[in-house]
Amino acid sequence: MKTSYLEYYKLILDKVSFDSTLWKKEYQKALSILSPEEAFLLKNWANNKYYKANQKLAVQAGKQHHGIAIKPLEPTKVR
Question: Angle at which helices 36-50 and 55-63 pack, to 10 degrees?
Answer without folding.
Answer: 160
